[in-house]
Amino acid sequence: MWTTTASSTWGPPAPGQEEALRDCYGGLPYDVTTPALLDNHLHPKHQPCSPPLEVTQEAGEMVFVPSGWHHQVHNLDDTISINHNWVNGCNVANMWHFLQQELCAVQQEVSEWKDSMPDWHNHCQVIMRSCSGINFEEFYHFLKIIAKRRLLVLTKEAGPGKAEGSEGTGLGRQQATFDIGRIAEVLASVVVHPDFQRLDTSVFSPKPEDLLQQLEETVAAATSL
Questions:
Q1: pLDDT tens digit string along 58-92?
Q2: Quick one: 118 and 79 in the same domain?
Q3: What are the TM regions of this chain, as residue ranges (predicted)?
Q4: Are 82 and 96 found together in one domain?
Q5: I need a surface site. Which of 1, 130, 172, 190 has the fewest CB within 10 A?
Q6: pLDDT tens-digit series, residues 148-205
């Protein structure tokens, strides 16, 4: 996050500790300093833990928040900030887990219309996309694009740093192999998910199962060298 004036960022001392802040409805507080957290009826899981980390960010400075770390920001003055979310081989599985949770939440919210709404599962995908910015179909295409770029790095025609989408990044064979392995692990979970199987994948190119097989074979060949 980059800001033009100072701001204060709060967050739990480690991923997972935010679970102790959930209220009786499963929601997280908007403010980790609120006295309402002391209400045992509203926050039955609240327990003493390490105090949250606090960082004061001055104008022009950048704060990197690792994947999985919950945080909140207090602007100390009128502020313009630029935020960028990132996905790579280390946290792509987290993204897939998040999308599954989002779909479950949508399905639960509209469950009473399941029997009366034609194409209910497709509508859930549409609603999830409007809330999260992506659905299962788009997530597959996202994986496919990244996988293709990593596969180019491992071909004889494209050496490290020369593949499409990786020029100038110094992307090498080792990182490409790692990313392909992580994508293959996630894709293996995607293709067997019941809601993904309800999609019309006959128009996908390549087919999800074919791409998965290619990725697994590539990883096996690369690790055997």
A1: 888 888 888 878 888 888 888 888 888 888 999 99
A2: no
A3: none
A4: no
A5: 130
A6: 999 999 885 444 444 444 454 567 889 999 999 999 999 999 999 999 999 999 999 9
Task: Identify whether residues 123 and 48 lie together within a single domain.
Answer: no
Lowest mean pLDDT among 50-59, 102-111, 133-142, 163-172: 163-172
d(CA 186, CA 40): 39
E-strand stretches of 7-123 = 7-11, 53-57, 72-75, 81-82
Query: The tokens 């290619």 sit on which residue?
Result: 214
For residue 138, count other CB atoms closer than 10 A to its CB.
Answer: 14
Neighbours of 204 (CB within 10 A): 16
Looking at the fold, whether 51 and 120 belong to one and the same domain comes out as no
**Of the residues 86, 119, 143, which one is the last residue of a structural domain?**
86
Give the integer Cα–Cα distance in Å for 110 and 8.
38
Tokens matching residue 137: 């179909």
Range of the domain at 172: 92-223
Distance, in Å, from the CA atom of 187 to the CA atom of 204, rounded to the nearest integer, reads 14
- Whose tokens are 């001055």? That residue is 58
Burial 46-62 (b: 16+ CB within 10 A, else e): beeeeebeeeebeeeee
